[in-house]
Amino acid sequence: MTDDGKKEARKDEQINYIRPFLNQFRGDGVKISAEPVWSERIEEILANLPSEVLGGIVSRIRQSSENQLIDFDAFGETHGLTPAEIKMVDSIVGGLSVPQHAEAQGISVNTARVHMQRVLEKTGSSRQTDLLRKVFGR
Fold first, then answer.
1. Looking at per-residue confidence, does 46 or 38 come out higher?
2. What is the C-alpha separation between 101 and 108, in angstroms, rounded?
3. What percent of the chain has pLDDT over 90?
4. Are 73 and 84 in contact (CB under 8 A)?
5. CA–CA distance, 53 with 47 (Å, rounded to integer)
6. Beta bridge partners of 30
7. What letter would DSSP give residue 127?
8. Contact assessment for residue 89 and residue 75, using Cβ atoms and an 8 Å cutoff
9. Number of Cβ within a 10 Å radius of residue 41
10. Taking the CB of residue 34, how many other CB atoms lie within 10 A of it?
């Protein structure tokens, strides 16, 4: 493999490392990875960054967030959550309130409150802070 080929392979490896973390980022209460335009733009930006910059990003993510990446599907499966309830947990972890989640999902606040109540019941949490502790394994 040529030096250019090795650099491209390393860059692809770095971008692949960063991708799962994009699910944690939000813009206007919506996951960036859920918006095709945002996802495409971020992919374009990452592809055009120099390898040393990507390396710095990967290093910082590893230092600060490696243990913070949350597998919401696994958490939901463990607690018997529905897809709508998993979205609720994801929103709460992302800092949204129940009404903000309702607006972002296009559902009524009452429906969102029902989802939140079911999440609390299924996870054995008495309030949202207890839920967050369980999500983060504390």
1. 46
2. 9
3. 32
4. no
5. 11
6. 27
7. S
8. yes
9. 12
10. 13
Q: What H or E segment, with its residue span, contains residue 26?
A: strand 26-27
For residue 57, the model assigns a pLDDT of 83
Exposure class string for 1-33: b at 16+ Cβ within 10 A, else e? eeeeeeeeeebeebbeeeeebbbbebeeeebbb
pLDDT tens readout for residues 111-135: 999 999 999 999 999 999 999 999 8
Dmax (CA) of the chain: 59
User: pLDDT-derived band of residue 102, with 50, 70 and 90 as boundaries?
Assistant: very high
**Taking the complete model, does pTM exceed 0.90, yes or no?**
no
Q: For residues 55 and 14, what is the distance between their CA atoms, to the nearest angstrom?
A: 7
Query: In the block, which residue shows the tokens 């944690």?
Result: 24
Checking if the pLDDT of 66 tops 60, the result is: no
- Tokens 């120099």 correspond to what residue? 50
Helix (H) or strand (E) holding 30: strand 30-31
Percentage of the chain beyond pLDDT 70 is 84
